[in-house]
Amino acid sequence: MNNSNYRKKAPALLCVLAILAAMSATLTGCGGNPNEPRIVRVAHSQSETHPQHLGLLEFEKAVEEKLGDKYDIQIFPNELLGSSQKAIELTQTGAIDFAIAATANLETFADVYEIFSLPYLFANEDAYHATMEDLDYMKTVYASTDIAGFRCITWYNAGTRSFYAKEPINSPADMKGMKLRVQQSPASIALVKAMGAAASPMSFGEVYTAIQQGVIDGAENNELALTNNKHGEVAKYYSYDKHQMIPDMLIGNIAFLDKLTPEEYEVFEQAALLSTEVELKEWDKQIEEAKNIAQNDMGVEFIDVDIEPFREAALPLHEEMLDRNPAIRDLYDHIQEVNKNYEAGK
Ligand code: GCU
């Protein structure tokens, strides 16, 4: 968290403590009055202009249009309720009802989610979208965390991840000796190590200050991290090695979802799908804007690297991970089939 973020968050954190205290007292509306709509809390880690927040506003609207007398959706952006990891735990225990979580943060709850951290898994963006939009297949993945106390109800695009740093990275050789932030996922740690760099797992909110203070040399993410999260202020070289496409998931507390009537469940599910539609459209628009802003206003240089050396260094991880984690095998094979249909555009 950078200083200005901290200043913004400090009063908010006090509110959060009050909210959490109230939440532990009751799971119904503010005062526990059964005649008031049940407050439904949704946490995420992005800003209020981010595509995911705009998608969630549609979720709120769609649920409240049909069930406003029963449910009042409240959205908490900017890691206001804590890091993504924390928000997952709050959703798990039912202290809040929904959160957006990167699949990298779901790996500790269901092994299958490790699949998305595999580098160069999808042939291209079309194969990625086709996989994620195949809801018949994805429903089994979505249900994989039921046993942990929450279920995924839709996905959001979080783009393609590439490395960015204070110094230019043109090939894996340039990464030797660098320390780079990764998500808290064993596969992402292994990826950075395979490139010859040191991996520094930390939560998203800590990255800006860590780069600024020289604790790390850079990180890896989509282009919105440069603008929305201001990382472009402190890291001026973004190298398009395109190593991962890691989606974000909207997860809901299982006890909350199970208590909904089938009609209500349908409303929440449709609202979630609508939020994804909005998010995907906004994503494409905002990525283009982010590149312009980063390049022209923030002075970030985008480097079109030769991807092959990065891919070569990373690919041995596929077999290693498949051997270590059999839970990803079925989805891995499924994605290879999807890839075949999209290989031409690779
Ligand atoms: C992206 C993603 C977040 C994730 C973050 C990260 O911004 O949308 O869900 O937390 O990357 O690298 O931690």
Task: Give a brief rundown of this model.
By secondary structure, the protein is of the alpha/beta class.
Describe what you observe in this structure.
This protein is globular. Mean pLDDT is 92; it is low at 1-12 and 24-31. The protein is α/β, with parallel strands linked by helices and 346 residues long. The protein is 46% helix and 17% strand. Helix 2 (51-67) runs antiparallel to helix 10 and helix 4 crosses helix 13. It has helices at 3-25, 51-67, 84-93, 125-133, 135-142, 186-194, 207-212, 224-227, 254-259, 262-297, 308-314, 316-324, 329-342; strands at residues 38-43, 71-76, 98-102, 150-156, 161-165, 179-182, 198-201, 218-221, 237-244, 248-253, 301-303. Strands 2-1-3-10-4 form a five-stranded mixed sheet, sandwiched between helices. The chain has a four-stranded mixed sheet with strand order 8-5-9-11, with helices on both faces. The protein has a two-stranded parallel ribbon with strand order 6-7. It contains 13 helices and eleven strands. Strand 1 (38-43), helix 2 (51-67) and strand 2 form a beta-alpha-beta unit. The two termini are 37 Å apart. Alpha-D-glucopyranuronic acid is lined by residues 45, 84, 102, 158, 183, 204, 221, 225, 248.
